[in-house]
Design a protein that fits this description.
globular, 16% strand, two-stranded parallel sheet, single chain, alpha/beta
């Protein structure tokens, strides 16, 4: 009886929340919003539906969310200061999950100004709005790319992240220190999540899994950078969403063990935390391609190319801090995750 009462209380507690999810039409945003809605929360979605990749895919994600009566959508750019201010005043969100950003390492080399607008000005607007409206917890997307030129693996939150190798990574590092200043000055609980190469159903068309699957089904060759020897900590979307919600439910607090004489980037005397969220199973790109080939039942014609500017040779996540904080760390095997993506891809595109 007591167990049932506890569950009811948890459901009721979630139902009282209103979570603002920016980037709700994005890959991670849709999955997280669906989970929030499934547990009874009200979700206020924000997305500018830009054309960085296929808007029809974003519309299809939105359609999945729009069937829920507790979901409302606002087409809005987070860089629109006045528009965002009005939204916060109208909706009075208790929590904010900030996933909106101009994505893509390589595109940031061509169009850095887009990243300044969305990732810097947009994030500044989010911080100020959260401060002004007493948001209980801000969780925001950072990236494994902040580790940049670091050679020590696996990456840990205690490592310095002072040498980004792309402008995208620089904006994500900037987000972390901007958030810390608001946590320190205004007591705003802020948690940043460094995502490691997220993949799975409803994924982004600019990511390797999507591009390789499309090309292989079309009988076209695939471009394999770094001669196929680059290593990535591929992390399945369901694991990402589970980790995000667990973190969202546990607002950042000051770290009583923080040592100002030996400071580390992951915690603080302020209500501020940074966590890696990765699979902790680095995979060579050629092995990742082999998993796609197995799932599709065909062999790819590969064009081996050098590493592109802005890319790093390897990523690997130390997730011990995340596991200690919320009792969870991603673990879905790459082969299983790739198979699920391929199944979704064939169904969605009717192939």
């Amino acid at each position: 009886m007591a167990l049932g009462t506890g569950r009811a209380r948890r459901r009721q507690g979630h139902a009282m929340n209103t979570t603002l999810v920016t980037g709700c039409a994005g890959f991670i945003g849709m999955h997280c919003a669906e989970r929030l809605l499934a547990r009874g929360e009200r979700v206020v979605g924000v997305d500018n539906l830009n054309a960085y990749y296929d808007v029809a895919l974003k519309d299809a994600r939105l359609a999945r969310l729009s069937v829920h009566p507790q979901f409302s959508f606002n087409k809005l750019d987070v860089a629109d200061t006045d528009g965002l201010t009005r939204l916060f005043e109208r909706e009075r969100s208790t929590h904010v999950l900030h996933l909106a950003a101009q994505a893509g390492v390589r595109y940031s080399i061509e169009q850095p100004q887009d990243y300044t607008q969305s990732n810097l000005l947009g994030f500044a607007n989010i911080l100020q709005s959260c401060r002004a409206h007493d948001v209980k917890h801000l969780v925001f997307a950072s990236s494994s790319s902040v580790y940049g030129g670091n050679a020590k693996l696996p990456y840990a939150e205690r490592d310095a992240v002072d040498h980004p190798v792309s402008y995208y990574a620089a904006t994500k590092k900037a987000n972390e220190v901007m958030a810390h200043s608001y946590a320190h000055l205004y007591g705003l609980p802020c948690t940043g999540l460094r995502f490691f190469t997220v993949y799975g159903p409803w994924g982004r068309p600019d990511m390797a899994l999507f591009k390789f699957t499309r090309a292989m089904l079309a009988g076209e060759p695939i471009d394999v950078y770094g001669q196929g020897q680059m290593v990535r900590d591929f992390t399945y979307i369901d694991d990402i969403a589970e980790g995000v919600l667990r973190v969202l439910d546990k607002p950042a607090t000051p770290d009583p063990a923080y040592d100002a004489l030996a400071p580390t980037p992951g915690t603080s005397t302020a209500p501020y935390r940074i966590f890696n969220i990765g699979n902790s199973t680095p995979t060579v790109l050629m092995d990742y391609i082999a998993a796609i080939e197995q799932a599709l039942g065909r062999t790819a014609e590969k064009r081996l190319l050098p590493v592109q500017p802005g890319d790093v040779q390897a990523t690997s996540a130390d997730t011990s801090a995340l596991a200690a904080w919320v009792g969870f760390a991603p673990a879905t095997p790459v082969g299983q995750g790739v198979e699920r993506f391929v199944q979704w891809y064939r169904e969605f595109y009717k192939l």
